[in-house]
Amino acid sequence: MADKLGLSENAMTVLQSRYLVRDGNGKCVETASELFNRVATMVASAEKRYGNGPDKISQYQQKYYELLSSLRFLPNSPTLMNAGRSNQMLSACFVLPVNDSIEEIFETIKQTALIQKAGGGTGFSLDNLRPTGDIVASSGGTTSGPISFWRVFSEATNAIQQGAFRRGANMAMMSTDHPDILKFIYAKQKLDAFTNFNISVKVTDSWMKKLTRTPKALHVITNPRTNQNYLIPRNVDIENYTIKDLEPIGSKPPASADGKKYYSVSDLWKDIIKCAHATGEPGVAFIDRINQDNPIPSLGAIKATNPCGEQPLFDYEACTLGSINLTKFVVENNGAMELDYDALASVVKLSVRFLDNIIDCCQYPVRETVKLAQANRKIGLGVMGFADLLFMLEIPYDSQKGVDFAEKLMGFIKEKAHKASVELADERSPFPNWSQSTWRTEKNLRIRNASVTTIAPTGTISIIADCSAGIEPLYSLAFTRQVLDGKKLVEVNPIFKAVAQEQGFFNKTFASRLARTGSIQGMEKIPAYIRRIFKTAYDVSPQWHIQMQAAFQKHCDSAVSKTINLPTKATLASVDKAYRSAYQNSCKGITVYRKGSREIEPMVQCPYCP
Questions:
Q1: Is residue 516 part of a domain?
Q2: CB-CB contact of 65 with 4 (8 Å)
Q3: Residue 122 in 3-state DSSP?
């Protein structure tokens, strides 16, 4: 259907395939402007519960519509899909518990299906499940272990994804001290296994210190049912071992001299690195760093995140995300391009209110999530279009200037977002669990939302907004797209295309070549300063990727979704260095992807994007 907003062809394709309302015959009966009006009307309706009358509600409805239709801000996909419809599930991120009984496991599988049917993503910790071969007292038999139950979760997602708006996405996490950790690390080395799951190994600060200071120390694992400690023999059959194949020990492990016979800390680390080098999985979650920013530690430790890793949550907690399109805030000043911070501040404030309203409008598909979502009122305001913004400002991504700018930018957004949330607390009251949170006990700050800022991957909404995804570098400056009549069209990043045309080196032949290579770094005829600015993901070294992630993390309440791109020839040592560097730079997690390590390359920089 035609639309008056002038959205890109790619945006309209995505909207028509996933978001716009259809009639009983599957035909789209909604325009993009009608979609944004549907969402704005629903979000504004939440104002009524805070004493605002029809005129005020109408004013906010118009403000929200302009916010969305201008593409300055977009909420996560479930909000765009479901707002104002019979299924009004609006949050993207959920974490569910996986407890150690058949009844509880299958209850969680049911809850997962309900969430994913509505368009949400789910994260799980597998730590509570007893290890393979452990005793099941009720039957006298033994358990098939966490991996087998994990497979049931994966098959459930496969079964429902055809009827949902998008492919189901999950995150599975396991701590290094679980007896089945080797099985977990290697589970996704078969590329057709658990394709709807991303996985991360949870690593503690004490474990990382052992890796650094005493790498030959024996790796101790613990049965979560009995608390019995074990060692892993080096000759264990990774795919088939059970708890009976492990060596039981007392509370104090034997000397590291036995490392010739049993797994050491560095041995386990090497397996993580080897698998990540081979397939990009597993990632690593620095769980103590995550809990360092836990705003309500009185509720317990955070044990898992959403599918892309940027939103740590308690069991039965949910969060709604939204991202600001940074390309909409570039203005010209005396011939130079700069960021309009005043306009950005205004959008940050309105976006925080928008996301807070979502919590009141959302119909959570799992009853247990309602209580925590409303008691903590976590939101996740982030950004997209960052790579495009750097192009526009002529700042190289892999430069100290780029990293400093990122830290300044996110610091500004966090400051304004927190201020907006504080103002909402004055107007509406702090979140219900505020009195037992660090906002009261440490910061003495009344705030509406327990967490406010998050950097999401924005895989789909960045296509609608016609900008680069999240904070990632551009994956390619050009690509070839096949249209419906079989013709192939070359699409070039519009910012680069404008510069290339101005410099006089853009033509169809150049565009076709660029679509094959994706990068201009080997093109010596292009001026060096242009090549310096317009770098793509694989042109940026891993250390600059990590420094950029760390810069955003400094001013992010939750976490950052970011992929560390590695060239095809990257070594195991370079993966090892990247993982260690992420920890040293206080990142909350890390994911790498080595080019060509999967048969099907991810369409966006983050292989964790749903």
A1: yes
A2: no
A3: strand
CA 254 to CA 122: how far, in whole Å? 39
Burial of residue 496 (number of CB atoms within 10 Å: 0-12, 13-18, 19+): buried
Q: Which helix (H) or strand (E) holds 598?
A: none
Residue that terminates a domain, selected from 465, 489, 524: 465
Mean pLDDT confidence for 74-86: 96
Place of tokens 């690509």: 479
Report the alpha-carbon distance of residue 447 to residue 429 in Å, rounded.
8
Q: Are 305 and 313 in contact (CB under 8 A)?
A: yes
Residue 511 has what DSSP assignment?
Answer: H
Is it the case that residue 609 has pLDDT exceeding 70? no
Q: Say what the pLDDT of residue 137 is.
A: 77
Q: Which domain holds residue 449?
A: 71-465
CA gap 565, 276 in Å, rounded: 12
At 188-227, the pLDDT tens digits run 999 999 999 999 999 999 999 999 999 999 999 999 999 9
379-384 and 135-136 as β-strands: parallel, antiparallel, unpaired? unpaired
Strands 141-142 and 135-136: antiparallel
Please give the C-alpha separations between residue 423 and each of 68, 290, 299, 353, 380, in angstroms, as whole numbers: 22, 27, 25, 10, 17
Which amino acids are annotated catalytic? 306, 308, 310
**Residue 488 pLDDT more than 80?**
no
Report the distance separating Cα 359 and Cα 459, nearest Å.
Answer: 23
Q: What is the CB neighbour count within 10 angstroms for residue 97?
A: 18
Q: Which CATH number belongs to the domain containing residue 371 in this structure?
A: 3.20.70.20
**Do 520 and 537 reside in the same domain of the chain?**
yes
Report the C-alpha gap between 565 and 572 in whole angstroms: 14
User: Are 451 and 582 in a shared domain?
Assistant: no
Q: What's the burial of 375, exposed, middle or buried (CB within 10 Å: 0-12/13-18/19+)?
A: middle
The reported pTM is 0.95
Question: What is the C-alpha to C-alpha distance for residues 214 and 191, in angstroms, rounded to an integer?
Answer: 34
Q: What band does 485 get if pLDDT is binned at 50, 70 and 90?
A: low
d(CA 478, CA 305): 33
Residues 33, 3 contacting (CB under 8 angstroms): yes
Nearest to 446 by CA among 473, 418, 467: 418
Token couple for 35: 């979609």
- What proportion of the chain, given as a percentage, has pLDDT over 70? 94
Give the number of residues written for the chain: 610
